[in-house]
Amino acid sequence: MPRMPGPATRPRPAVGVIALGCPKNLVDTEVMLGLLRQAGFPLVPDPDQAGVLLVNTCCFIEPAREEAAEALRDAVQWRRASDTRALICAGCWPEMEAPALRAQFPEIDAYMGPGDVANVVSVVTRALARAGAQQPESPPTAYLYDGKSPRLRTTAPWTAYLKIADGCSHRCRFCVIPRLRGPYRSRPLDSIVSEARQMAAEGVREINLVAQDTTGYGRDTKETDLPDLLAGLAAIDDLHWIRVLYAFPTGVTDRLIQVMASNDRVCHYLDLPFQHADRDILRVMGRPGDGGAYLKLIARLRAAMPDIALRSSFIVGFPGEGEAEFQRLLDFIQAADLDRAGAFCYSPERDTPAAELPDRPPADVAQERYHRFMLAQQAVSLARNERWIGRTLEVLLESPGEEPGEWIGRSFRDAPAVDGTVTVHSGALPLRPGVFIQAQVVGAEPYDLIAETPGGGRPSRRLTTTSRLSRGRGRRR
Fold it and tell me: Are 308 and 195 within 8 A, CB to CB?
């Protein structure tokens, strides 16, 4: 007897994603995209073409929550346009305060925390079935990316973020990350190297290592460390740049410096969030070290790697910061001579010890200090950039510029999205995105360089330096 056909399988609705926050959050987003694609959900860049919208949020500081709230307000309008649509809020914000989000945005169909990344398909399925908005299901420690999950990278094909750990075991008094992400958890070294090899086979040439504290890698397992990991990654022939982000200052050992200095594939670049320079403010923050110790660290790094690019971030307006403490920070900025530095006005975070501290500077004072800091650092960054005029740099080309024969790229000194660019004038030289070229630096701005290839001709214009303070902001942790 012939078999009767079953009911037609209903096609999966398309999914759109809005990814907010840091590169560590972006990796989570890319894993969720990979899992959804593997489950048969079409992925679309335009929410108007989607039946499901997932907003992956950050709530590290007040501006991050404001950005997330704005995205969710827009998403709610999208959700109201059709009863068949589903809206999901993921990331750190629902982990922190899902009940408040439910009260503010009742249209949200489901919530996910950092521990629910691997469950994204079931969460989406329940949201479409109108199962009711729930708390994040899993604790943050339930998930640690291992590289085996499918991942759909959203960065340019030649660059990628590689998350080597999750969580944080530091006890900075202003930070909610340990509560939102759990204690520090390192991935196995073999898993990271295997993923990097796969990325290299797919055409990735630049890998940016990320974690809440990259220098803490392996400290929890006591089986390996960051220098071992860098040595393993540097043995991958097809990788060209390996960059270390989010390095805790006291975690930079002599061995790490030696490995960075001796491996050509490891960029002479380090992101060191100092947060402040005044000893008393750092103690109140729950941070080790002081300006003097940080200057000694910088001297060690530059002795081993004279061309190293150093980035940092700082908090102004922290409780107890008076004009004298802030002046010590400005003095440190001059003495440290950092290539890049960004500042943030302190915002008290609920359920952190710092939120209860007295003597917080008024908001207008903090804002004024932020601008003074950024203007001081802008002059330092310009002087650092001017030292490269007349020298040859290797540049990774990323996109055509505005003029014929002009390209926008980055050097080893420039992390994606947060640092400067190199504008290369190449004349008629045929070039394409994703390639490395040699170019001579012929001009400098506070955040960017101007260069030319042989025969490229001098640039006909200079980049503006006005209203560009935000380019130096960077990351907090």
Answer: no
| Residue 216 backbone phi and psi in degrees, to 5 | -85, 0
Write down all domains in the chain, each with its CATH number in brackets.
Answer: 15-142 (3.40.50.12160), 159-386 (3.80.30.20), 392-472 (2.40.50.140)
Write the DSSP symbol of residue 183.
Answer: S
Of the two residues 179 and 316, the one the predictor is more confident about is 316
The answer to whether 92 and 128 have CB atoms below 8 angstroms apart is no
Residue type, 104: Q
Question: Is the model's pTM score more than 0.85?
Answer: yes
What lies within 8 Å, CB to CB, of 377 at 6+ separation is 333, 338, 341, 342, 343, 472
Question: What is the separation of C-alpha 62 from the centre of its chain, rounded to a whole number of angstroms?
Answer: 17
Backbone angles phi, psi at 227, to 5 degrees: -60, -40
Predicted pLDDT at 60: 82
Indicate the pLDDT class of residue 136, thresholds 50, 70 and 90.
Answer: confident
Helix/strand/coil percentages in the chain, nearest 5: 35, 20, 45
Q: At what angle do helices 226-234 and 189-201 cross, to 10 degrees?
A: 30
d(CA 298, CA 332): 12
In angstroms, the CA 385 to CA 431 distance is 25
Tokens encoding 87: 């809206």
Strand partners, 342: 313
DSSP assignment of 1-33: -PPPP-PPPPPPPPEEEEE-S-HHHHHHHHHHH
Residues 6+ apart with CB under 8 A from 296: none
Sheet holding 110-111, edge to edge: 15-19, 52-57, 86-91, 110-111
Of 179, 172, 160, whose CA–CA distance to 248 is shortest?
172
Give the integer Cα–Cα distance in Å for 269 and 261. 10
The two structure tokens encoding residue 231: 């040595």
DSSP letters for 342-394: EEEE----TTSGGGG-S-PPPHHHHHHHHHHHHHHHHHHHHHHHHTTTTSEEE
- What is the β-pairing status of strands 52-57 and 15-19? parallel
Summarize pLDDT for 99-123 with one digit per residue, the tens.
Answer: 899 999 999 999 999 999 999 999 9
